[in-house]
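Subject: sequence -> structure tokens, single chain

Hey, anyone have a minute? Need the predicted structure for the following. Not urgent.
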Amino acid sequence: MAEEIVNRVAQSKLVVVDLETFYPEGKRVLFDIKDWLYEGLVLREKEFRQFVKAHDWTQYQDQFVALTCSSDAIIPAWAYMLITVQLSQIAKKTIIGDLNALESAIYQCIIPDIDTETYKGKPIIIKGCSNKPVPDNAYILLAEHLKPVASSIMYGEACSAVPLFKAKK
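Reply:
Had a minute. Here:
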């Protein structure tokens, strides 16, 4: 008789944490203010304020927005703040930076809210591959968040996990 194949991973106490499952839905937008600058380089306050006032902000409803300037202009902090004031009741989140910085900022808000009770005293594998843009920083934040409660933390897949931490007994 053939021996039954046993999935030891499924029977183990290992808990796989996939950051992709915490990925919030919503469009990510890179908002470049370069076009609102005089010759793409100089911020003229009066003109800039007119652009902000005339812009249709509703198009960013429930979106995640990264504010940037792709030219070498020096942008004062108040300019980004002025835009953020407009987006504050519309967008889900607004940051200064690129789309990777935006994803990182999103996960900085999500990870502290993950209930660690489920993971208390258990060996954890933080799944490494994802189809969604999970930034490297999110893995670090998750490991920090789970370390106080986990019996061990590994990274990767159950068949080839890299050990990161093991609690002292």
